[in-house]
Write a structure and sequence with these properties.
The protein is mostly helical and 184 residues long. It contains 9 helices and 5 strands; from the N terminus they run H-H-H-H-E-E-H-H-E-E-E-H-H-H. The chain has one domain. A 3-stranded antiparallel sheet has the order 2-1-4. The longest helix is centred in the N-terminal third of the chain and has 24 residues.
């Protein structure tokens, strides 16, 4: 209980909201959807994963890179991405988003979610309500933030106002700079 008392009031409100039974059920559903979608995508994209791995192994360079990030409640995450080789192959991998495919393993493992606050580097401050949820591949900060301060505010607002419907809207919105919807 001491840990909860150290948290600022906005974090306490978000934590209380996420502990309610219906919120816990929706969070469980969110995790189940993440797992099903990640496993389905990994199965469907297995040939692409193998092909990209073989191409990168034949380029005589490193084929994956790891980045340390902070996850839910300050836990450490190691997120893997394919290394970007120079030249046309690297540009092609970047264009189709294939470099990010290993992140699906982190979603399947539960360290990441498809939608959530940003996964911050371990050297950045980890404050606010954002620490109550698993980080996501996409979220409001990735869609709309112009700077770090705005990104932190969007991450906290996402957690405080979290809903499955909001996750689906973020997941399927394709415009990166649409005006942020304001709820009153």
């Amino acid at each position: 209980m001491e840990r909860a008392q150290e948290r600022p009031p906005d974090v306490l409100r978000a934590a209380e909201r996420l502990r309610r039974p219906h919120a816990r059920m929706r969070l469980g559903l969110k995790r189940a959807l993440d797992l099903v979608m990640a496993l389905a995508m990994l199965a469907a994209l297995a040939p692409v994963l193998v092909l990209v791995t073989l191409l990168l192994l034949s380029s005589n360079q490193g084929w994956v890179e790891a980045r340390e990030r902070v996850g839910r409640d300050g836990s450490r995450l190691r997120l893997w991405r394919f290394h970007r080789p120079p030249g046309a192959l690297g540009a092609a991998l970047e264009r189709i988003g294939a470099r990010e495919l290993p992140l699906l393993f982190a979603v399947a493992g539960g360290g990441l979610s498809f939608v959530g606050p940003r996964a911050l580097p371990t050297d950045e401050g980890f404050e606010g309500a954002r620490r109550l949820m698993a980080p996501g591949l996409i979220g409001p900060a990735q869609r709309w933030a112009a700077n770090a301060e705005t990104a932190a505010q969007l991450d906290d607002a996402y957690v405080e106002e979290w809903s499955l419907a909001g996750d689906f809207k973020l997941l399927f919105s394709f415009s990166r700079r649409r005006p942020l919807p304001v709820r009153r």
